[in-house]
Amino acid sequence: MDGWGFLEKGAELARRGESFALATVVWRQGPSSGKESCRAIITASGQLHGWIGGACAEPVVIRQAREVIAEGVPRLLLLGTAEQFGGPLRDGTNFVPISCQSEGSLEVYIEPVQPAPHLIVVGHSPMTRTLAELARVLGWRADVIAGEAFTAADATQRSIVVVATQGHHDEEAVTEAIAARPAYVGLVGSARRGAAVLGYLAERGVPQGDLDQVHVPAGLDLGPTTHQEIAVAILAELVGLRAAGRLGTSVSGMAEDSGGAKTAVETAVETAVDEAHAVDPVCGMTVTAGPSAYPLSRDGVTYYFCCAGCRSAFEKDPVAYLGDETRC
Predict the structure, then answer these.
(1) β-pairing verdict for 301-303 and 48-50
(2) CB contact at 8 A, 305 and 282
(3) Quick one: CA torsion of 103, 104, 107, 111, rounded to 10 degrees?
(4) What are phi and psi of 108, to 5 degrees?
(5) pLDDT tens, 86-117?
(6) Using CA atoms, how far apart are residues 240 and 117, in angstroms rounded to an integer?
(7) Is 98 helix (H, G, I), strand (E, B) or coil?
(8) Residue 290 neighbours by CB under 8 Å, 6+ apart
(9) Which helix (H) or strand (E) is 302 found in, with range?
(10) pLDDT at 81 over 50
(11) pTM for the complete prediction?
C-alpha cells in the first residue's frame, strides 16, 4: 500500500475516530527489504497496513507503534546491532537489537495520529450553531442534533456532548448523553436549572456517579454574556480540558467511564504494552512471547524465536546458544 491508497487508509481511520501510528523508514543499511520512505499505518489493535520491512522488523515496529499510540509521543526506532548504531542514543530514540541473517539495519520514525475531537451539540438555538462553527474552525468534527432527535446511538465514548436544549427535553437529552458514556457531557444553563435537571434524574434512578460526570453549567463562567460568547466559553473549557488530557479524545488521556469499562482501543493498547517479551537465544532479537514466535520447550523452559530458521538452529544445537552469549 502506497500513494493514494495509503493516504485513503489514514483518512478512513480518522473518519472512524480511530487512533493509529504512522511509521516511516528514514534510513537503512542493506541488505534490508525496508527502503527509505517505506511507510506503514499501525492501528491500536496491531494491524499493519503498508510496508516497513520483513519478518524481523515488522513485529518490533508493531509493538513499538502500539506503545507510541498509548503514550502519544513519537519516537525514532533503531533496528540492528549495537555496532551499527555506535555512540549514545539521542532523546526520543529507542534501540532494539536485531541480528537477523540479512545483517541489515533500519531507522524508523513512528508518530501517533489522533483523530479530531467529535463534538455533538444537542439543541437548535443560535448558540448551538455558533459553537459547532467555532469547533470546525479548530478542525474538530461537529454535529448539531435537535433535542427530541438525539439518542445515545449518536455518540461514542470519544464524543463530546453539549446539551443546549434550553428547557426543551433537557432531562431526556442528558439521559441519552449519559447512556452513551462519552468523554464529556455538559449542560448549558444556570446552576439552578442544572441542579433541577440532575435532581429529577436522580429521583428516577440515574446513578449519582453518572450524574457527577455532567458539567453544569457547561463552559467557563464569564458572567452575563451573548450567545456567541457562551459558545466561546464552552469551547474554551473543552480546549482546556483536552490540553490537560482530561478529555477522552486521545488514548493517553481517555478516562474510564463510571462503571470502569474501557473501550476496545484502550484494551488493545494496554494489551500491547503489557505483552511479555522474550529474547531469541539464537540471534538476540526481542520478540513477543506468544504462539506466533515459534515457541519451543526444553527442560521446562519455553524459548521464543524471531523466525523458523532460528528455531531450527536452536533445535540442532541448543547448548551452543545456552552455554554462552554467541549470536548468529
Answers:
(1) unpaired
(2) yes
(3) -100
(4) -125, 125
(5) 667 677 787 877 655 556 788 999 999 988 89
(6) 13
(7) coil
(8) 275, 276, 304
(9) strand 301-303
(10) yes
(11) 0.64
